[in-house]
Design a protein that fits this description.
mainly beta, 32% strand, Immunoglobulin-like, three-stranded antiparallel β-sheet, 14 strands, disordered N terminus, 214 residues, 7% helix, 2 helices
């Protein structure tokens, strides 16, 4: 499992993907009974607030549901399938927990670390360790103790913000099983390790509706 981090930043915990104003704001939409569903194909990309990352082992579908007024709708990801290039059987969505676990424990991160040492006079310089480790005589300001917010020039503390890891966003942005109250949106993840340019036709199936995403 490979994860390419395109942008890293501190993130505030916030609501999942808001549904767009209307179904026509998505690439495709379809009326299923009294409800309307709409979808976009996002490739390998998962976009979180202020951050975007890519997973090469899954393709991502943004799905929106617009329930009919005064009508119950219960979301069940198991009722959605994806057909690639007309092949059967269709794929079922992958549980977000499995996708998150794959991101949290990618095999490429389990590389041995290499440390090299060198000498400058009587001072030792260590390469490959935490950059907070400094040599004697370093005039830079020391790193703040663990748990203490860093300070801006002048001694003003920078407000500490909650950080969410990519695997946490995978779960946070995914659809959850249960009742849908009003227009809602979320992500579905389907296993796919091939190259995107090999996908000539991509169809999302739900009930008797077929949404052609590509």
């Amino acid at each position: 499992m490979r994860l390419l981090l395109l942008a890293a930043s501190t993130l505030l915990a916030q609501e999942s993907i808001p549904a767009r104003a209307k179904p026509s704001d998505y690439k495709v939409s379809a009326v299923v009974g009294p409800h309307t569903i709409a979808a976009d194909f996002l490739g390998h990309t998962i976009s979180a607030p202020e951050s975007t990352f890519v997973t090469n082992d899954y393709i991502v579908i943004e799905l929106a549901v617009f329930p009919a007024a005064r009508s119950d709708y219960r979301f069940d990801s198991g009722k959605y399938t994806l057909r690639v290039n007309g092949k059967k059987p269709e794929m079922l969505p992958q549980a977000p927990g499995f996708v998150a676990a794959a991101l949290k424990y990618p095999s490429w991160e389990q590389r041995p670390r290499i440390e090299a040492t060198g000498g400058i006079g009587n001072a030792g310089v260590i390469l490959g360790r935490d950059p907070a480790a400094r040599f004697p005589g370093d005039r830079r300001a020391p790193a703040p103790p663990p748990g203490m917010p860093p300070k801006q020039p002048g001694g003003v503390e920078i407000e500490k913000r909650e950080m969410l890891r990519p695997e946490e966003w995978v779960t946070k942005l995914a659809w959850e099983y249960g009742p849908v109250k009003g227009p809602s949106a979320g992500l579905l993840y389907f296993p796919f390790r091939g190259k995107l340019d090999k996908i000539k036709k991509l169809e999302l199936l739900y009930a008797d509706a077929v949404l052609v995403l590509r």
